[in-house]
Recover the amino acids of this structure.
């Protein structure tokens, strides 16, 4: 995918999977809401828990976003089917945001993007300090897709 297509997908979607490295050596994947602001992925959550504990111990992470679009029928037999999708994989480091202005801007952006009905609602400032906001400092970004061949039927999965 081109950088523009990657940016478009990240701007369109609202959920992804954040993978961190657990203290036990196992990878830990967490489905999360996110917002894509100024070319950066931001997530939020509690200051406690496995996800944030893992990121504090080892900031290396992977963030994946996918937009499944169904299955392309490529022939008559059962195996003549392929997935139609777009996906982005970001590898980098989690950066915990400590600047309160940035936290407020990101949290406001999340509300505006994820819950548009609350776009103009006041923010409870007492909820800002106990909320962790994390930026993913990308070290590599890759995007892949499979688009159907013109004339092939695509069905929902």
């Amino acid at each position: 995918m081109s950088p523009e297509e990657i940016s478009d997908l990240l701007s369109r979607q609202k959920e992804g999977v954040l993978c961190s490295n657990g203290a036990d050596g196992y990878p830990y994947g967490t489905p999360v809401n996110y917002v894509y602001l100024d070319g950066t992925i931001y997530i939020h959550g509690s200051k406690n828990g496995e996800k944030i504990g893992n990121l504090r111990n080892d900031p290396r992470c992977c963030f994946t976003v996918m937009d499944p679009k169904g299955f392309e029928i490529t022939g008559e037999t059962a195996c003549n089917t392929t997935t139609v999708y777009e996906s982005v994989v970001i590898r980098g480091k989690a950066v915990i945001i400590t600047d309160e202005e940035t936290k407020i801007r990101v949290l406001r952006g999340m509300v505006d993007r994820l819950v548009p009905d609350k776009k103009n609602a006041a923010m409870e400032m007492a909820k800002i300090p106990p909320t962790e906001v994390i930026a993913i400092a990308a070290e590599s970004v890759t995007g892949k897709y499979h688009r159907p061949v013109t004339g092939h039927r695509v069905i929902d999965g």
Notes: The chain has a mean pLDDT of 95. Helices lie at 3-12, 50-57, 100-114.
